[in-house]
Inverse folding.
């Protein structure tokens, strides 16, 4: 089966915990703290692999978690960092955050990779908190939780040229004639139920990739037929080959050409501006010459028309060499994230703001840095808890809660933890 969409959950590994330990050796008085740091958690990385063609591997498994870092140990021994979890995806995958729809990456080059869920850093052991005023700290940090999110993966096939047209126009027959691809071919509409790729190799050594897109019909951009499911695969092509069945009446041939182009324009206006070559197919049947002449008259000089017969091979060489020459002059398609990356270069990131919201009777404190600090605190350690309280006061959490109307006994939620509000 051809799968070009998947929704998966990824979680970076938590950092290992730092520990509280003290040096205890004979003849070493006041050895001091020696708790080691925890290791960093593994990150989840998506890596493009040109050898893959579908997202079928993600069909049967949707949850992926990297390992957590090793905990610190005594005698200043740090925990081992966990290995990254690398998930291989086909080249051409667009990665989006499932919750926001934001594009995180467009993996178009073999070997290109992106971190989609960073592992948490390891917690610091008590040896890291020694200061002139505290020579023997009895607290440490827990490991930072790894990032987690749901992702939506969308595969857009990488091809130089795309065969488009109404069902049964002869696209699959043409692909089978010009390449080693063997798509299903039959005399009924919608024989092709998934895009097929074929490599065209010419005698002069040139080659390019052609994609056979399942037939479009009127309303394809709204989900009619198979159009909406596979229109995305045309977006990466640099030139379109519009295959027309020339055996229909002349007016119907023109109407068919207009139908497909209208669907392309509705789905993505940029597709209507993409270079397009017309392949007038089934010229081995009578009456084709007159219709080709009418097509050329109606479409004008902006469209090059090639009379071909995919079943016999007639006229195909001229079409292929024209496509090869055209592709030599066309730039590669821009990645989906190109504009967003450019915008990020000039965007000034605002500091993380503190907000208080009411949810189900609880006051919810929202701020990534504060949530991270709470998650890394040993709440059953009095010294660590006092340090956290001082940090929250310094960050203005106490004052913000008072302004929000919190009173003694109110429930305060920070991340996954709940506290009881106590007035000073």
């Amino acid at each position: 089966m051809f799968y070009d969409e998947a929704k998966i959950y990824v979680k970076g590994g938590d950092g290992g915990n730092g520990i509280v330990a003290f040096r205890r050796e004979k003849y070493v008085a006041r050895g001091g703290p020696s708790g080691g740091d925890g290791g960093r958690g593994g990150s989840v990385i998506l890596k493009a692999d040109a050898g893959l063609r579908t997202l079928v591997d993600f069909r049967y498994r949707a949850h992926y978690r990297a390992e957590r870092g090793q905990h610190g140990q005594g005698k200043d021994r740090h925990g081992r960092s966990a290995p990254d979890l690398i998930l291989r995806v086909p080249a051409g995958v667009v990665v989006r955050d499932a919750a926001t729809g934001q594009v995180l990456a467009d993996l178009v080059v073999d070997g290109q990779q992106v971190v989609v869920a960073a592992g948490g850093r390891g917690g610091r052991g008590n040896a890291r908190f020694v200061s002139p005023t505290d020579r023997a700290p009895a607290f440490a940090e827990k490991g930072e939780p790894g990032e987690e999110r749901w992702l939506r993966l969308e595969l857009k096939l990488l091809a130089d040229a795309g065969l488009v047209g109404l069902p049964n126009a002869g696209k699959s027959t043409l692909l089978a004639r010009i390449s080693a691809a063997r798509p299903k071919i039959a005399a009924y509409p919608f024989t092709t139920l998934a895009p097929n790729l074929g490599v065209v190799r010419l005698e002069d050594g040139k080659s390019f990739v052609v994609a056979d897109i399942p037939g479009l019909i009127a309303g394809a951009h709204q989900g009619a037929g198979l159009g909406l499911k596979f229109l995305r695969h045309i977006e990466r092509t640099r030139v379109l080959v519009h295959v027309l069945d020339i055996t229909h009446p002349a007016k119907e041939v023109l109407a068919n050409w207009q139908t497909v182009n209208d669907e392309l324009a509705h789905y993505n206006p940029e597709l209507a501006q993409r270079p397009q070559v017309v392949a007038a197919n089934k010229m081995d049947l009578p009456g084709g010459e007159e219709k080709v002449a009418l097509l050329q008259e109606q479409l004008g000089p902006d469209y090059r028309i090639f009379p071909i017969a995919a079943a016999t091979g007639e006229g195909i060489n001229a079409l292929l060499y024209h496509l090869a020459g055209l592709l030599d002059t066309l730039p590669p398609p821009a990645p989906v994230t190109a504009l967003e990356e450019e915008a990020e270069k000039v965007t000034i990131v605002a500091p993380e703001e503190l907000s208080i919201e009411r949810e189900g009777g609880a006051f919810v404190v929202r701020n990534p840095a504060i949530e991270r600090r709470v998650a890394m605190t040993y709440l059953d350690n009095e010294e660590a808890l006092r340090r956290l309280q001082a940090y929250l006061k310094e960050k203005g959490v106490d004052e913000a809660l008072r302004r929000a109307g919190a009173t003694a006994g109110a429930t305060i939620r920070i991340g996954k933890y709940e506290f009881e509000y106590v007035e000073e």
Remarks:
- Residues 355-420 form a domain with the GMP Synthetase; Chain A, domain 3 fold (CATH 3.30.300.350).
- The CA atoms of residues 239 and 323 lie 8 Å apart.
